[in-house]
Amino acid sequence: MRISTMQQFNTGLRSILNNQEGTLKTQQQISTGRRVLTPSDDPIASTRILQLQQDISLREQYQKNVDAAKNRLNLEESILEGVTENIARIRELTVNAGNGSMTLDDRRSIASEIEQRLFALEDLMNTKDASNTYIFSGFKGETLPFEKRPGGGVIYNGDDGERKLEISNSTKVQTNDTGKALFVDINSAEKTFYTRDNEKNVGTGFISNGFVTDQEAYDEFYPEDIVIQFNPDGFISPPGPNYSVLTKSDSRPINGLNGVAYSPGTELVVNGANFKIAGEPEPGDSFFVISSEKQSLTDTVSGLIEGLRDLDDNPEDSASLSELLETTLLNLDFSQVSVSEVRSEIGGRLNTVDNIDNLHQDIDLVSQEVLSKLQDVDFAEAVSRLSLQSFLLEAAQQSFTQINRLSLFNTI
Question: What angle do CA 252, 210, 179 make, to 5 degrees?
Fold first, then answer.
């Protein structure tokens, strides 16, 4: 077979280039530690590698959610532990206040300590997490959940939203409990009420938290609501600030309380409901006493404080105090049960999160091992192959040089 000089030259050059390409590829594998550098190196392995990398990346995001869920649930658990301790102390002080030897001054001292515990409860209920979000506001994480009222107690400004985090393909975990469910919607031992200022009021007046002093009388009046309406000064003679106490359903005066002269700090007892109006209301301002079968934790404690400070040592007030203390103890027990149930739920959620966390770690370990086998280079084999390829490249270069020197002109 006749081989031209050009054909001989091209064949030798291709041999050198092929060996150079193989040597370069092996050198890149060794320097990067990767066996598969491009999909063409191993199409099947490349597809599997991409799938594993996507799975690992997804689990990394799940792991961030797992960590966030743990942090939020552990924070909520520690807060509820503090709430439990404060409720227990308030309950202990409530029992002490029922001691028959206590005077009004003694009860007022107890009320002062209970008030400090109430402040501590309000601080705990308004706790933020590491992302500066209120944990008991539901979806309204930027809104202060519990806002203090001038007359005592708080107003809940959050919603019923339950935040959930996806911690695996098939698992979501609730990472918060709303303040409404935890601290507001608590069954009351007896029919009760809560007070509110009309948002349209223009004066500086406010209504106190209040408490029930005659349960039997209030039960007969229940479920009617009360409206305290401030009238124009000329409604009475001589003219001056005055108010009427009306039923909400039909605006009828209750117990003849129509056009009553007002002075700041006025105490009212209406069908067993005891409350005060203070400040400087303007004509047209109004206040509400709203019947309810539920009583928030803060309303329970605020009503207790008000009763301990206002109820005197006479027989009638002593009977009202005994009734208030008994109802308060039952309501505190209901609040404690509400908190304990949620703490149990948090424990269950944390167990779920821990199980998913361990599962992610086990799967990641297996995935990393498989990924390593697919894409990582065998350094011993690669170094040996590089040595062989280097030898072949050197041999090709030397043989190319020798063969290209062959010419008839060299023998003439």
Answer: 110
Q: Return the SS3 of 144.
A: coil
Closest of 345, 363, 366 to residue 62, by C-alpha: 363
CB 242 within 8 A of CB 259: yes
Domain spans, the chain: 59-358
State how far the Cα of 213 lies from the Cα of 137, in Å rounded to an integer. 33
Contact between 159 and 137 (Cβ < 8 Å): yes
Say if CB 330 and CB 192 are below 8 A apart: no
DSSP 365-386: HHHHHHHHHHHB--HHHHHHHH
Specify which residues 174 forms β-bridges with: 164
pLDDT at 345 over 60: yes
Identify any residues that bridge with 267 across adjacent strands, giving them in sequence order: 276
Residue 192 forms beta bridges with which residues?
Answer: 292
Q: What percent of the chain has pLDDT over 70?
A: 77
Superfamily of domain 59-358 in CATH is f41 fragment of flagellin, N-terminal domain (1.20.1330.10)
In this predicted model, what pLDDT tens digit does every residue of 160-205 receive, in sequence order? 999 999 998 889 999 999 999 999 999 999 999 999 999 999 999 9
CA angle 124, 138, 350 (to 5 degrees): 75
- From residue 92, alpha-carbon distances to 85, 113, 368 in Å are 11, 11, 57
- Cα separation of 190 and 227, whole Å? 21
Whether 17 has a pLDDT exceeding 80, the answer reads no
400 in Cβ contact with 30 (< 8 Å) = no
